[in-house]
From TrEMBL:
Belongs to the CCZ1 family. The lineage of its organism: Eukaryota, Metazoa, Ecdysozoa, Arthropoda, Chelicerata. PANTHER family: VACUOLAR FUSION PROTEIN CCZ1 HOMOLOG-RELATED (PTHR13056). Residues 14-123 form the CCZ1/INTU/HSP4 first Longin domain. Signal peptide: none annotated. Residues 194-234 form the CCZ1/INTU second Longin domain. It comes from Limulus polyphemus. This is Vacuolar fusion protein CCZ1 homolog. It comes from the Eukaryota. It holds the Pfam family Intu_longin_1.
Length: 253
């Protein structure tokens, strides 16, 4: 769920208008409004104790709710069901909630990455809102992006690797690496519109002119979505048309 916070008391925004994106969309309107109201109330309440640090998580027996302030007045919230297993005690079967299997820092990292991935291809929420003058274009972009992005997430397999977002580098000898560097330099010299270049062999990075934070986000997109789709189609002997274009450049503020 992504929503825009109402920080000005005299502005009467309807609760439903605050919701920019909600998944699953099949949830009824009352549920959406109730969840947004609960999130906003919780964030405001925790601010009274520590205004400099926003609320990050809410633990209940059955769920874990994570919060991330993506931009000023823009919040993202994700609810994860705590896994369970049946146990027997004194001949009685009961459900045990495995709270230790849900680590806050892991899912908070996934939530943050989902924002960075959107920003890489679309720009910031505030910039889209400022350009359009209303929230409709932002809602459309959020819907178009996350309908494709969320299904590829494997939350059940989330672990510490999602926190550190490691990049696999391809070790090369000096001669091979210099050939790659010369190729990149020639490419950028002949095509002035290219601002940044990343050179990968399969899912291993050889060269990158991007800053590390941006490269980590792009690398995740390539290895989780684009490269697997090419490999699968190549094995089947067909052709693939990427559903998302990769644009490298400082196009967001």
């Amino acid at each position: 769920m992504i929503y825009m916070r109402d920080t000005v008391n005299h502005v009467d925004l309807q609760e439903l208008k605050k919701i920019l994106y909600y998944y699953p969309d099949l949830a009824d309107t009352d549920t959406k409004i109730k969840n947004v109201g609960l999130c906003e109330a919780l964030i405001k309440f925790t601010e009274t104790f520590n205004p400099s640090k926003a609320c990050e998580a809410l633990h209940t027996q059955k769920t874990r709710q994570l919060f991330y302030q993506a931009e000023t007045d823009f919040w993202m919230a994700m609810t994860v069901n705590v896994p369970t297993q049946q146990r027997t005690r004194d001949g009685q079967v009961y459900i045990e909630y495995l709270a230790d299997d849900v680590q806050d820092h892991v899912y908070k990292s996934i939530l943050k990455t989902s924002y960075l991935m959107f920003r890489l291809f679309n720009g910031t929420f505030q910039r889209i809102l400022s350009k359009s003058g209303n929230s409709e274009m932002l809602k459309e972009k959020l819907s178009a992006f996350y309908k494709k992005y969320l299904p590829i997430l494997k939350l059940s397999q989330a672990d510490l690797l999602d926190v550190y977002q490691g990049i696999h580098f391809l070790p090369l000898d000096k001669y091979a690496f210099l050939k790659v560097q010369c190729f990149v330099n020639l490419l950028e010299a002949n095509f002035s519109h290219i601002k940044y270049t990343a050179f990968l062999y399969n899912d291993q990075l050889v060269w990158s002119g991007l800053e590390q934070d941006n490269m980590q986000v792009l690398y995740m997109y390539l290895t989780l979505s684009l490269i697997p789709s090419f490999l699968e189609t190549e094995i089947q002997g067909g052709s693939v048309m990427p559903s998302t274009k990769v644009g490298l450049g400082s196009h967001y503020g």
